[in-house]
Design goal:
Layout (H helix, E strand, L loop, with lengths): L6 H9 L4 E6 L10 H17 L4 E7 L15 H10 L7 E4 L2 H10 L2 E5 L16 E3 L2 H11 L3
Parallel strand pairs: 1-2, 3-4, 4-5
Length: 153
């Protein structure tokens, strides 16, 4: 895993005002392509790598299901956003979700949070399909700048 050069500074700026979470769909688990332990190992590595740089991820929420499983936790369903709100006393209308999949944006809308779509990762692949009204940002750095600007931080 390699972080973009701006990742740490962007997350540090955001964590001054917001709690940080990872919400991830990992359908490879239910397809047998990867084990839950392997996914947990990668997520633990990410969290530890960020913690060493003084960036705190408060929780990692991971859905192991495929769409056909019709679970309650796979994005775009807002289950994990609502769980984070309950677990950490968050106000979702004052929260943001940053992602590179359309399901991330839809999850945010369904939960009442503000979605930001980034063009890094898988973002460019579906850029043309991003619904009107969803803020598109070049990357995490630009998403963080936008959030801090609109929240006057």
């Amino acid at each position: 895993m390699k972080l973009y050069p701006y990742t740490i500074s962007a997350l540090k700026k955001l964590q001054k005002r917001f709690l940080l979470f990872i919400i991830t769909n990992q359908s490879g688990i239910s397809r047998g392509e990867v084990t839950a332990e392997q996914v947990k190992s990668v997520n633990d590595f990410i969290v530890l790598t960020l913690r060493k740089k003084r960036v705190i991820i408060n929780e990692v929420y991971s859905c192991p299901h495929q769409t056909k499983d019709n679970c309650r936790c796979k994005k775009p369903k807002p289950y994990f956003l609502k769980k984070a709100a309950k677990d950490f006393s968050l106000n979702l209308k004052d929260s943001f979700i940053i992602g590179d999949h359309l399901s991330d944006a839809e999850c945010g809308i369904r939960a009442g949070a503000t979605p930001l779509y980034v063009l890094t990762g898988h973002g460019m692949k579906h850029r043309a399909d991003v619904p009107v009204g969803i803020k598109i940002c070049r990357n995490l750095k630009n998403a963080a700048e936008h959030i801090l600007m609109v929240t006057n931080a």
